[in-house]
Amino acid sequence: MPATQRLPRCTVLLLVLLELALAQYEHLGYPPGYPDPEVPEQYTAPQLAPDTPRIQLRLAGDKRKHNEGRVEVFYNGEWGTVCDDDFNLHAAQVVCRELGYLEAVSWTPSAKYGKGDGPIWFDNLHCSGKERTLALCPSNGIGVSDCKHTEDVGVVCSDKRIPGLSSSVYESQHKLTFEDVRIRAILSSYRKRIPVTEGYVEVKDGGKWKQICNSEWNQLNSRVICGMFGFPGERKYNARVYKMFARRRKPTYWDYSVNCTGNEAHLSSCKLGQATAVKSNETCSGGLPVVVSCVPGRAFAPTSMTGFRKQPLVRLRGGAIVGEGRVEVLKNGEWGTICDDHWSLLSATVVCRELGFGTAKEALSGGRLGQGMGPVHMNEVQCSGFEKSITECFFNKEALGCSHEEDAAVRCNVPAMGFQESLRLSGGRNPYEGRVEVLMERNGSLVWGTVCSDGWGTMEAMVVCRQLGLGFASNAFQETWYWPGEVSADAVVMSGVRCSGTEMSLSHCLHHGDHLTCAKGGGRNAAGVSCSETAPDLVLNPQVVEQTTYMEDRPMFMLQCAYEENCLSSTSNQAPANSYRRLLRFSSQIHNNGQSDFRPKAGRHSWVWHDCHRHYHSMEVFTIYDLFSLNGTKVAEGHKASFCLEDSECDEGIEKRYECANFGEQGITVGCWDTYRHDIDCQWIDITELKPGDYIFQIIINPNYEVPESDYSNNIMKCRCRYDGHRVWMYSCHNGGSLSTETEQTFPGLLNNQVTHR
User: Which catalysed reactions does the entry list for this protein (predicted)?
Assistant: First the structure.
């Protein structure tokens, strides 16, 4: 424009206003052309100032959806977390938008999604909500924090993505971001199979499902896909069939390829590969859609003769659902735990794959899933991620000074079996309780109905809570009139249910078929449950029993209380008052190693007063003592003991909460133990008629499963016992499940599953 040419007045005014608007935009931290977060326009990657710390975000931890999780920050070559101090919804808004979501829905403090690892990169964040990246929010400074990982923050973002968002928000950082990923069964032979183990790998991007071109795909990528869907490994498939299918139906390809190392827990943790070269006929250059075929673990295989069949030297204990628990390894015929020093997701994944699951979702420390007993076999475990067994990983043999407060645990990815779709709780005050309703086929159609409560107990309730992913059972109810439920589902559709407690689905338990039998009927008398995320775990100390056992001859007139409580042999009914009874006496120390207090099922109003002992008994049957011959025959009458429950002693730093005196509350606190001394009434077995020989001594705690626990296998303790008519020896005492199956079988007497009571 010539210098002499003058602009109209209105044009000059508009230009001035435009400059003011741009200046205001820059003042807020947004360069020209960058969309306001509150106005979702076409997404444009922001241009950051040279001195802005370059960070990368992801959502991790124990999450159920792709748009929620623990906030993790990648900076200076290392992943870390964000502290919840001063965190608010404005900061969550910045996180979610930086991840490509439209907005934040909520945020959660106190490591709701589990504790992270590594440095805590941000603390005391003060975001306005309009910052382009979390690195621009005022804070203590990157890496400056006084927080612990118990304060790791999490966010829940909107399901909606920012319109026009590419699969990589910052392609220069090689960051993968997409809405979802799945294995879609293509062949008819796989479409009806549960779980889905073979098919196209598809990612959801921009609201559409797209295939990935296999031109740069490799086995390590397949390993990651199978792992994230709960499978321990991958296998070959018939490529010819899929090639024919791709020719008939043209795929819609994703714009990028993927580069995985094989150790990633999720596809989103892999690096972004090259952009895919797409021809006009919609087939990728030199390739076809990616197909994976995964090997299921034995528990999820279509038949028991297929799937991942390795017998592992590792097991999980104390977990509420399949695929989680405290890690225990077998060494020299004895099970022990792993110390959490240097415990990582890589090591946890080796455990998960060894057990027939997928990759680890979380590596837990600090005895989060309960404390074990026995030795700590491994410490400072370091795995590459490709070991076949955790026992192949390097560990420090000289650093085994760990306590069980440091027991390591895992949560693994498991296949989606769809069990939750055929079961529900109805009528409860919260999602953790209600009448049990199941979806069953009746007369050729699927209908919702109730479960007959005849024989309904803790084991059945445990399976229901596990199937719904609600943790452990806290109560099993045989009446549910206070939970109305769905009127249309009042009819009984399942009866005669008997579970061992380990089943993944109620349908796997023994139950009547088409011929239902239920005297009570459904509706008001249907089965119900309440669930809890935690449970107690009682364990007897075998060393105390072994070290305190002795024999005593006691006159009948001094056993009046014991006689009233049926603690003596049946032959004592006819014994004269001046006769003697021979008693096998011992002390017992019962620890609560679980995650919640052990409380009696009965309320205070129903406790029984025992005048001899001068206190109330809150459980009619708490322990059973038995003596067996080596062929499994009971030779000394079992004694059913009822006690008051209290905290005798506790670990350091834990206060006693329960005391029997003065009609106090009864129970055993987590980290405490209840000791019954050898010199109190009924702490014995009457062996007056016992012949000299070798025997098996056995104690069972909570034998009727009256109170739910996280692990019942360790409620049994067995010892070898030798009696020569004058003296008694107790030796080789051990808890149930503490020895290998082979070692247990060499131990004369009964196996654990033969002595279980209902």
Answer: L-lysyl-[protein] + O2 + H2O = (S)-2-amino-6-oxohexanoyl-[protein] + H2O2 + NH4(+)
